[in-house]
Structure formats: structure tokens, C-alpha cells
Design brief:
CATH superfamily of the largest domain: Glutaredoxin
CATH class of the largest domain: Alpha Beta
Distance between the termini: 36 Å
Number of strands: 6
CATH architecture of the largest domain: 3-Layer(aba) Sandwich
Radius of gyration: 22 Å
Number of helices: 7
Structural class: alpha/beta
Length: about 220
């Protein structure tokens, strides 16, 4: 029988805060180990035996094994303590959407923010630091904008009103990013709006042909 406790390695102002919050929501006791910010000090303290890359957070499980990557840790907590309802049940359609967005934010937003705040880590030439930062800011801005559209839904009874709504939202998107209709991001936004702003009856939740309204990204239930 496993009798150990969770041991979380982290530090202030890092991704370990999300893991601490998840444990608090799940009502799970754990030990918190503060990892020195200096890489040499962290290595001297034996942290590389937990996570060879030296990054935080990392979590030692009750069986003594360790996992890193904040997303993997959060998914483990959600599955290990399902009563906390931190995530939809594994295998459900809602969980598929949940995991998609969690990974979208990690792979795109989080990675872009790292380049924005620590551009020197992503170039060997100090002269290029500001160019890396500027590119990262543009990258993150575009992904935030598209993410916002993917979270926007609307139902309009009249087809011309629905189309006008799509047009207006697309115009706001393009203006915010400083792009025109031919830009690939503008085309992506238009595709999102075609699925998220629909003509239909909001009382019966059906389209004119009688089929139920289904939004591509919306999680219900």
C-alpha cells in the first residue's frame, strides 16, 4: 500500500502556483519544497535528480516517482481526485475540449509569453533580443485574439443580421491585429465566426431546417 505524500517542487511567481491551487481545490495535503532560483544552487540541492532540466514545477508522487510539466501534473491531480471536478471525466467529449484548450494555452500562449519575458534565452546574439521579444508579443497577441473569438458565440434569427455580426466581429479582429482580409489569421477568424455565429432560433436552439444548434467549441453539461 502506498503511504507517501505528494511533494511539490516550486518557487514563487512560477507555474507551481497553478498546482498549489489545484491541490487546494482538491483538498489534498502535500509537502512544498522551495527550489532555489539560481541553477547552480538548485543543482547543489539535488533538484536535478527530480527534474534533470531544472525547471519547476515538478511533483514527486506518493509512490516515489516524479513527473514534471505543469500540464501533466494538473491532469494527474484532476484524474486522481475526480470528486474535486477539476476537469470533466476522462473519455468524455467535454474532456476532449478541456484538454485541447489546456494544451493550446501551454503550447502557444505560455511558450510565447516565455519568449516575451525572457527573450535572451532564445537567441545566442544579444543584438537580436529585442527582435525576439517583438516577435513573441505579436505571436501571443494573435493567439489571444483567436482564442477570444473561439469563446464567442451568437444566435440570430435573421440571416442578414447573423452575417452582419460576423462581419463586424471580423473587422474588430482585423483592426486589433492590424491585418487585412487576405491575411491567414483573418481567414482563420472568419472560419471560427462561421461556426460560432449562427442563424437560428434561440428559444428552440434549432437552425431554420430544424436541426439542433451545435457550436464547434462550446462545452455544455
Amino acid at each position: 500500500m502506498i503511504s507517501g505524500r505528494y511533494r511539490l517542487y516550486g518557487r514563487n511567481a512560477t507555474g507551481s502556483a497553478a498546482v498549489e491551487a489545484a491541490f487546494a481545490e482538491a483538498g489534498v495535503d502535500y509537502d512544498l519544497v522551495d527550489v532555489p532560483r539560481n541553477a547552480g544552487e538548485a543543482a547543489a540541492a539535488g533538484y536535478l535528480a527530480v527534474n534533470p532540466r531544472g525547471q519547476v514545477p515538478a511533483l514527486v508522487l506518493p509512490d516515489g516517482t516524479a513527473i514534471a510539466e505543469g500540464t501533466a501534473i494538473l491532469l494527474h491531480i484532476a484524474d486522481a481526485f475526480p470528486a474535486s471536478r477539476l476537469a470533466p471525466p476522462p473519455g468524455s467529449f467535454a474532456r476532449a475540449h478541456h484538454d485541447r484548450w489546456l494544451l493550446f494555452l501551454q503550447a502557444n500562449i505560455y511558450e510565447g509569453e516565455l519568449r516575451r519575458y525572457y527573450p535572451d534565452r532564445y537567441t545566442a546574439d544579444p543584438v537580436c533580443t529585442e527582435n525576439v521579444r517583438a516577435a513573441a508579443e505579436d505571436y501571443v497577441k494573435r493567439h489571444y485574439a483567436l482564442f477570444a473569438l473561439m469563446c464567442t458565440y451568437g444566435i440570430e434569427l435573421l440571416s442578414d443580421n447573423a452575417e452582419e455580426c460576423r462581419h463586424n466581429l471580423a473587422e474588430v479582429f482585423n483592426t486589433f491585429l492590424g491585418i487585412d482580409d487576405n491575411d491567414e489569421w483573418a481567414q482563420a477568424a472568419r472560419a471560427v465566426l462561421e461556426g460560432n455565429i449562427v442563424q437560428g432560433d434561440a428559444l428552440t436552439m434549432t437552425v431554420p431546417g430544424g436541426r439542433p444548434i451545435t457550436f464547434p467549441e462550446l462545452i455544455t453539461g
